Amino acid sequence: MPTKPARTTLAALQAMKTRGERIAMITAYDYPSALIADRAGAPMLLAGDSLGMVVLGHETTLPVSLFDMIRHAAAVVRGAASALIVCDLPFLTYASEADAVASARRVMQETGVQAVKLEGGAPIVPIVRRLTDLGVPVMGHLGFTPQSQNQLGVRVQAKDAAAARQLIADALALEAAGAFAIVLELVPASLAEAVTGRLKIPTIGIGAGAGCDGQVQVWHDVLGLFDEKSPRHARRYAEIGAAMEAAVKAYVDDVQSGAFPTKSNSAAMDPAELAAALAPASTPSA
Ligand code: KIV
Questions:
Q1: In this structure, which residue's CA is closest to atom 5 in ligand 1?
Q2: Following DSSP, what letter does each residue of 129-181 receive, concatenated?
Q3: What is the pLDDT of residue 3?
Q4: CB 91 within 8 A of CB 64
Q5: Which H/E stretch holds residue 46?
Q6: Residue 252 CA to ligand 1 centre (angstroms)
Q7: What value does the mean pLDDT of the chain take?
Q8: Which CATH superfamily is domain 10-238 in?
Q9: Least confident window among 49-58, 66-75, 229-238
Q10: What residues does ligand 1 touch, defined as CB less than 6 Å away?
């Protein structure tokens, strides 16, 4: 059998934290983004439900269905041979233990991802416990949890002592329930660093400062796919949206001017064969 490249394991991620090696995670939503991120060496990919906004054009993550996640996460798995792939369970697909087990079963069996991510603290701890007891690796997600954005607003969370204390308690409870890592989104950097120091498992920050064990960024933000200003926590490493638009515009111009296609883009035919094909058909003799 051909040998496949080794995929990042949960143990490898844990060892990265122990060694103080920072973990770079990025979202991927389809085969090409997964292929590129995997080749670029990202050890962990997130098939995130931010898919709802950046791929499907919704305002929030709420309309994303289990079908959407399964279809896209399966494509990510086909593109990435080495990264550990985590798939978000979408809004209200893990509201009870039974729902969570059913949703995780479908995601794990129908996509081939290695783990699922669930948003929330204390209320979902028993659900995380149940999934991890059943052999499903679970990543937690605290701070700003986009599936609750109608309650939270899109803003930095846990800025006062009581909320910060709750976030620390939630993180410890998720770890005790078996989560292998926790995303900290939009929380003050000093709090994220304190949480990171208290946990054995890695924290992966987004808008949570440099004191986390790793970072996760949205593909479209890193690549500069949209014109809009990127969020404060993101860094644009390229202007791919502008490059794509310029390329498509050049193609449209070339078609309109006749500059594309050329002979080299076309197939040739023996002129005698064409002449024979175009000659009037001879009438069969009686
Ligand atoms: O869906 C997503 O992209 C996420 C990240 C923001 C962590 O959950």
A1: 48
A2: HHHHHTT--EEEEEES-GGGHHHH-SS----SHHHHHHHHHHHHHHHHTT-SE
A3: 66
A4: yes
A5: strand 44-47
A6: 35
A7: 96
A8: Phosphoenolpyruvate-binding domains (3.20.20.60)
A9: 229-238
A10: 27, 46, 48-50, 88, 183, 185, 206, 216, 218
Reported pTM: 0.94
Ligand 1 pocket mutation, candidates 29, 30, 61, 223, criterion most atoms within 8 A of CB:
61
Q: Is residue 185 flagged as an active site residue? A: yes
Closest C-alpha residue for ligand 1 atom 8: 48
* Spacing, Cα 285 to ligand 1 middle (Å): 75
Instruction: Tell which residue, 83, 85, 94, 47, has the closest CA to residue 68.
Output: 47
Calculate how far, in angstroms, residue 29's C-alpha sits from the geometric centre of ligand 1: 11
Q: Tokens 């770890």 identify what position?
A: 175
Q: Which atom of ligand 1 is nearest to the CA of 146?
A: 8
- Annotated domain spans of the chain: 10-238, 244-278
Distance CA 118, CA 124 (A): 8
Determine the pLDDT at residue 227: 86
Among 173, 111, 107, 113, smallest CA distance to 142 is for 173
- CA 88, distance to chain mean position in Å, is 8
pLDDT band per the 50, 70, 90 thresholds, residue 230: confident
The helix (run of H) or strand (run of E) holding residue 256 is: helix 240-257
- CA 284–ligand 1 middle distance (angstroms): 71
Residue among 88, 142, 144, 154 whose CB has most ligand 1 atoms within 8 A, to mutate: 88
The set of residues, in sequence order, having a beta carbon less than 8 Å from that of 196 and lying 6+ positions away, is 203, 211, 212, 213
The residue to which tokens 């290695």 are assigned: 114
pLDDT tens figures, 253-268: 999 999 999 999 999 9
Length of the chain: 286
